[in-house]
């Protein structure tokens, strides 16, 4: 183990920005049979955010016609790979779903994740 913490390096190199965090709380089946996703009231958190370079989309298995950001933060994030919908964030007026997560939270107290842009954030904050 090298003892290198990439989050600490990023936090020292780039100023953090304020984002809104929407934790997934579960789905509810409506009378028409459709399932609506539920999210807790958002809270602000600090993160380092940058665009994902399109030249690595193929390597990461990302769709070429979508926009992605990578986020480094000290907030625990959960993707949809655990039998649930993923948490979401709002940043710069847009809403994002977690696409891929790297969970270092239990070891070092931070996460990094690639988020896919899902549209304008029109939810109340």
CATH H-level superfamily:
Bacteriophage SPP1 head-tail adaptor protein
What is the beta-strand fraction?
Answer: 35-45%
Give the strand tally. Answer: 8
So how many helices? 3
Q: What is the CATH C-level name? A: Mainly Beta
Any idea how many domains?
1
Counting copies of identical and different chains, the oligomeric state is single chain
Distance from first to last alpha carbon? 41 Å
Mean pLDDT: 83
Task: Let me know the largest β-sheet.
Answer: 6 strands, antiparallel, barrel
Query: Do you know the CATH architecture?
Result: Beta Barrel
Spans of at least 5 consecutive residues whose pLDDT stays below 50 are none
Describe the protein.
This protein has 125 residues and is mainly beta. It has one domain: Thrombin, subunit H. The protein is 13% helix and 45% strand. It has three helices and eight strands. The strands form two sheets. Strands 1-4-5-8-7-6 form a six-stranded antiparallel beta barrel. The longest helix has 8 residues, at 6-13. The radius of gyration is 15 Å and the shape is globular.
């Amino acid at each position: 183990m090298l003892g290198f913490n990439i989050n600490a390096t990023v936090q020292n190199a780039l100023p953090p920005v304020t984002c809104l965090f929407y934790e997934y709380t579960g789905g509810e089946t409506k009378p028409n049979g459709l399932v609506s996703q539920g999210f807790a009231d958002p809270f602000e958190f600090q993160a380092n955010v940058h665009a994902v370079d399109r030249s690595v989309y193929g390597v990461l298995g990302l769709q070429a016609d979508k926009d992605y950001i990578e986020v480094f933060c000290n907030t625990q994030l959960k993707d949809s790979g655990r039998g649930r919908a993923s948490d979401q964030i709002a940043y710069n007026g847009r809403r994002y779903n977690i696409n891929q997560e790297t969970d270092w939270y239990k070891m070092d107290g931070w996460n990094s994740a690639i988020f896919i842009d899902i549209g304008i954030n029109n939810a109340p904050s």
